Amino acid sequence: MVAVRPCRETDHPALAGLMAEMQAHYGVPCPPDAEIRAGLAKRPAGTELLVAEHGDGLIGFAAFSAIYPGPGLKPGFFLKEIYVTETARGLGAGRALLAELARLALARGLRRIDWTAARDNERLLRFYESLGAKPQPEKVFFRLTGEGLARLAEG
Prior knowledge:
By secondary structure, this protein is α+β, with helices and mostly antiparallel strands. The chain is 37% helix and 23% strand. It is globular, with a radius of gyration of 16 Å.
């Protein structure tokens, strides 16, 4: 059985390993373990983490934060990341993480959860739609980093 709960500081070593695995899965660079752990310990205020456990180990996580305003000037959650280790896929961890996030949203009076997904991952898109989520084709995802971020900040 998969159990989901808020992340504790004692989870950071195992969570750092999951995050490194996620970076490899996406084929993107990964900082050293110590840097991942430091990032977890000093994450920005308002960011939250849920972890999924199976047996005696962590098998997944969800990173999210509250956002305001949304449609109708209502608050919601933005799910930044959800990841389940390759070996645990199919156990229901992704569904359990999202179900707990939905319960948490409703308990806090929030009425929506937003997130992004890779357009070309049909299996993932079908999974999200099976939960009742609806794609938002009228939206475009933007990112400002590196030189562009610095240039804009400089004015």
